[in-house]
């Protein structure tokens, strides 16, 4: 359906007319992010509710056929593609590229207002594996915040790009890791989590004063409390892991930061079933592969749920979405786990339900939907895993990018991935000097599921019960984020480079357009000068997309892995 | 069948040192003396295999290394200096003799039985 008509009852131009004049720009603060103004996209997840949803409806199911490219921006030096989620405030779009290059652009025209390229430790970056991509910035108090691969957090003037402060938070020379994820701003504080899962370290999450850049607190996701220390036998907390490399969110009602944490190291343990007492890291390994609630002011742990006690599969909880819902008077938080399950919690992270998004899961038989307990887990010993491949693949049944909840349809639109892996478990010793190296613990290879071929799918589901309303399949799993809008649309940027728009009610494809290269980053909608725009990052390459050429061939064989563009659409 | 060079004894490595106290040790610009066992297969399972699948026997994020047409100098150079956006540089982490052992491991790679 591509007829010309205006969505009945909905305004063509939603909200006040905006200009990009910084003189008219309002400060981005906690109340404004909480209110989730319809013209803006103020945090990585859109707002604290983490809906990845735009209330704008100028572009809608009736006219999306007239969507075309308004402008583009090339950030340059897009090593490992472009993986970030833009943000937008008062008609200005801010985004980051590889090497933490930051741009402020006129949201209506793409004109560069300012740019900032931090001087990075290039020799360090050349020795890093999960680098030099950057996944986004945060806005607050007239500043733009961005992390770097060499362990720093910057506060930039949102009007000029001038550095107001920079704070060194991690000794990346020693630990290898740095920051690739976007920060989160709340109540005068900037929160950012480090990389960590594959390296020896304690995976810190930091809070920094937004005004001064001074560190306020640090929470260690590996053995960060006395109780947690007891869950790492044989002092294995030293081999570490953890981290929180994707931004979580903030619950203002309880003044709590909600964050997901990464896996312990090595990824694959040789303990066998006796993982409480044997293997590389005997015990549950708190607070890895967990969701945690930290007091914003003190960093003290308030509550947590470990989604995968003693994660032996690298199916961690670092996915940043905490979708804040309310139904029948009950408040929920929905959080996807890399293993392919979606956890439903109350606001204190007590389990309310667990449902599988993907079909090919066999690292456990199931997860108890009432308690979250893992049932029939597979714990491996040294040697080749022979009985059946491990499902999902290390890329996850759910990857790190975000889905979208649409309050108008009540549906959660989320990408799932159906793939598995062969595995040969090895004993490893952590490499810690002169610089920490990866600690994987196995040789592995992508493999098709026992039931058939690899594929990906967009599901439209009830976020609480998991009931599926419709599904769209893709020959290769899409890796980008999903956007839904009040225009009854769902946008999916796929791996081949096609941006799709679907009818939010039934999944019918209404429009598509090639962005020229694969997607693995963010997509948002905002308004500038009274006009709605859709902005998507394109550019392939990195720790998961590098698997596509050898495994899928086709368009991936010639797809660049050092290129990218921000592409912005509007109605003709 | 495991690789015939599965365990290469009496070779370096600070990078594979068992001691965990080095987590807190000051960074050293050069690797420690070659005084401990260097296990290339373990190195692949820990680090290299993340990209070079099945211990280098199959293509993954990085190319298949078994039966590679590249010569030894190319492989040594790639391990030392990496490739921007694709492979890290290991010249600060591995000694020349360790890199030689990795080349030996790659040359001896055979398909695994079963």
From TrEMBL, chain A:
Its cofactor is pyrroloquinoline quinone. Pfam families: PQQ. The keyword Electron transport does not apply. Residues 1-25 form the signal peptide. Residues 41-348, 457-534 form the Pyrrolo-quinoline quinone repeat domain. The keyword Transmembrane does not apply. It comes from the Bacteria. Keywords: Oxidoreductase, Signal. Coiled coil: none annotated. Belongs to the bacterial PQQ dehydrogenase family. This is Alcohol dehydrogenase. It comes from Bradyrhizobium iriomotense.
């Amino acid at each position: 359906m591509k007829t010309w008509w205006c969505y009945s009852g909905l305004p063509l131009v939603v909200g006040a007319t905006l200009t990009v004049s910084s003189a008219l720009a309002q400060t981005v603060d906690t109340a404004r992010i909480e209110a989730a103004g319809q013209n803006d996209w103020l945090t990585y997840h859109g707002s604290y509710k983490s809906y990845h949803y735009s209330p704008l409806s100028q572009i809608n199911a009736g006219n999306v056929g007239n969507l075309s490219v308004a402008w583009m921006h090339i950030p340059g030096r897009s090593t490992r593609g472009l993986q970030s989620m833009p943000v937008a405030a008062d008609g200005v779009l801010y985004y980051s590229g590889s090497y933490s290059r930051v741009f402020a652009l006129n949201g209506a025209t793409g004109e560069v207002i300012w740019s900032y390229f931090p001087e990075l430790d290039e020799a360090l970056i050349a020795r890093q594996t999960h680098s030099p991509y950057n996944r986004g910035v945060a806005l607050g108090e007239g500043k733009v915040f961005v992390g770097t691969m060499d362990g720093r957090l910057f506060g930039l003037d949102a009007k000029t790009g001038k550095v107001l402060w920079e704070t060194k938070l991690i000794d990346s020379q020693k630990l290898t890791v740095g920051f690739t994820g976007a920060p989160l701003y709340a109540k005068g504080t900037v929160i950012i989590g480090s990389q960590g899962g594959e390296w020896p370290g304690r995976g810190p999450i930091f809070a920094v004063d937004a005004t001064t850049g001074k560190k306020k607190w640090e929470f260690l996701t590996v053995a960060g409390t006395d109780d947690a220390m007891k869950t790492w036998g044989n002092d294995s907390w030293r081999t570490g892991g953890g981290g929180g490399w994707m931004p979580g969110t903030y619950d203002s009602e309880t003044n709590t930061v909600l964050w997901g944490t990464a896996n312990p190291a090595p990824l694959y343990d040789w303990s066998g079933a006796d993982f409480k007492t044997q293997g590389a890291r005997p015990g549950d390994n708190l607070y890895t592969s967990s969701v945690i609630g930290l007091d914003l002011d003190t960093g003290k742990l308030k509550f947590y749920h470990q989604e995968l006690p003693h994660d032996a599969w690298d199916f961690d909880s670092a996915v940043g979405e905490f979708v804040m819902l309310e139904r029948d008077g009950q408040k929920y938080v929905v959080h996807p786990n890399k293993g392919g399950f979606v956890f439903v919690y109350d606001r204190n992270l007590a389990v309310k339900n667990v449902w599988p998004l993907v079909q090919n899961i066999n690292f456990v038989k199931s997860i108890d939907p009432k308690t979250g307990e893992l049932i029939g887990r597979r714990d491996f010993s040294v040697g080749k895993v022979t009985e059946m491949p491990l499902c999902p693949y290390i890329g996850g049944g759910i990857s790190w990018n975000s889905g979208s909840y649409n309050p108008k349809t009540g549906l959660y639109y989320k990408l799932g991935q159906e793939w598995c892996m062969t595995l040969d478990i090895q004993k490893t010793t952590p490499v810690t000097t002169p610089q920490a190296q990866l600690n994987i613990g196995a040789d592995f290879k992508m493999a098709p599921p026992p039931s058939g071929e690899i594929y990906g799918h967009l599901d439209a589901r009830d976020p609480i019960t998991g009931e599926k309303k419709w599904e769209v399949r893709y020959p290769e799993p899409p890796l980008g984020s999903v956007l839904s809008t009040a225009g009854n649309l769902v946008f999916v940027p796929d791996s081949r480079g096609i941006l799709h728009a679907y009818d939010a009610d039934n999944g019918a494809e209404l429009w598509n357009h090639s962005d020229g290269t694969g997607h693995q980053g963010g997509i948002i909608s905002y308004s500038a000068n009274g006009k709605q725009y859709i902005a998507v990052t394109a550019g392939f390459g990195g720790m998961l997309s590098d698997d596509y050429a050898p495994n899928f061939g086709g368009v991936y064989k010639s797809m660049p892995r050092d290129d990218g563009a921000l592409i912005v659409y509007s109605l003709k | 069948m495991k690789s015939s060079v599965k365990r290469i004894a009496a070779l370096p490595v600070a990078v594979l040192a068992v001691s965990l106290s080095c987590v807190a040790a000051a960074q050293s610009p050069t690797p420690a003396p070659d005084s401990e066992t260097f296990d290339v297969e373990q190195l692949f399972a820990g680090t290299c295999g993340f990209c070079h699948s099945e211990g280098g026997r199959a293509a993954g994020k990085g190319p298949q290394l078994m039966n590679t047409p590249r010569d030894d100098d190319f492989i040594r150079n790639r391990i030392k200096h990496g490739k921007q956006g694709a492979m890290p540089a290991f010249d600060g982490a591995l000694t020349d003799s360790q890199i030689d052992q990795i080349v030996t491991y790659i040359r001896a790679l055979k398909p695994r039985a079963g």
